[in-house]
Amino acid sequence: MTLPDHPLRYALVNELHARPFPALAAPCQVVYLAIKEPTAAHARDRSLDRAHLLKLLDLHGAPHPQPDATHHAATLGRTDLKWESHTEFVTYSAFTPGLDARAFDPAGAAVLPEAWIAASPGRAIVAVLIRVELLPDDEDSILPMLDDWFVPESLAVARVVDGAAVVAGDFRIDPAGYMRFAVFVRAGTGARRIGRIVQRLCEIETYRAMSMLGLPRARTLSGQLNTLDPRLSALVTGLDGREAAARPADAALHELLSIAAELESLSVNNNFRFAATKAYEAIVTQRIEALREVRVAGRQTFAEFMMRRYDPAMRTIRAAEARLSAMAERAARAAELLRTRVDVERSAQNQALLQSMDTRADMALRLQHTVEGLSVVAVSYYALGLVAYVAAPIGEALHLPKTLLMAAAVPVVLALVWWGLRRLRARVL
Description:
- This protein is an alpha+beta fold and 429 residues long.
- The chain has 3 domains: 18-191, no CATH class; 214-353; 355-428, no CATH class.
- Helix content is 60%, strand content 15%.
- It is built from 10 helices and 9 strands.
- The protein has a 9-stranded mixed sheet, sandwiched between helices.
- A hairpin with a 4-residue loop joins strand 3 and strand 4.
- Helix 5 runs antiparallel to helix 8, helix 6 packs antiparallel against helix 8 (249-291) and helix 8 packs antiparallel against helix 9 (302-398).
- It is rod-shaped.
- It starts with 6 loop residues before the first helix and ends with a helix.
- The model is unreliable at 1-18 (pLDDT under 50).
């Protein structure tokens, strides 16, 4: 059965198999460069990275990659070049057979010209020179060379990958701006294994540098949190006691919401960097574990160096992130308490307002009863005026005085007017 062709399926499979370094044979030297834009590197214009690569390829007349390629391999004279585009950076790896007479001579990096590097769309965040040569039969004979090449105080040396090689480096930048590593491989070690060892070293240094970008952010964030923490603590402490009674809850809530907004802004601004730092730290740890280090002549291993120099920085970053999260949670809890307090105060105000409205309604009812009584008298007065015109002829016919008839009509008129107004109010209500 033949499976249907699907370009995406082949692209994903090729992506998995295109990442490893090429097979390397000792002796050789490797120049490794990682370039990153200073800000928003994950959202950068990747066409600028491609244009920069094409300038290097054109210098040597090498073929161009596909328009949407994320990695490319080319031959530049005696040097094999590998280019890769990552989320936040691009890497250039140049592999040249043979060794210079002088160890870690910057002239060996001429395949990546300084003028070309200076014209890059970003900045070189990692620059590494790796010297790969055969391990002598007497392993201890390399120790004097290592002490001469590297700074002894920070030198890390380890036998790796089941004794296939000895790797060394001091994680110091030399005057030319390069980090330096030495790889001594045993005779008979496979070229692909050598390539994987070199790749692990490049990845360790790259992701170590990328994860360290979170440290300045953490230090800046700590200063900002040091400013916000007293304000937040004062508000939280003031939720109980005399200060709570003296200060309006609405004003405290507005200030607390301002603090919460600042904390949320800090979280948004630092979330990507801290998340990336976690991912890069995990990769560094995995790559060091993959080396399967064994101590050489009592020297510190790469894992021990990272434990002493690298892990404290990562703990600082994690502490700053945890503090930011804790303060945001405190602000949220305090805001909830203040909202409850505001609701209680508003309920009390509403209850007082209802009581005031009830009192006013009672007063209005009493006033209405008073006005109703006056209305009965007023209407009755005008009604008696009309009755007087009707009773005058009747009184003359019966020889009765007008005043007597009016006096007799007063109670009747009052009663009728009162009864009529009651009926009218009952129908209206």
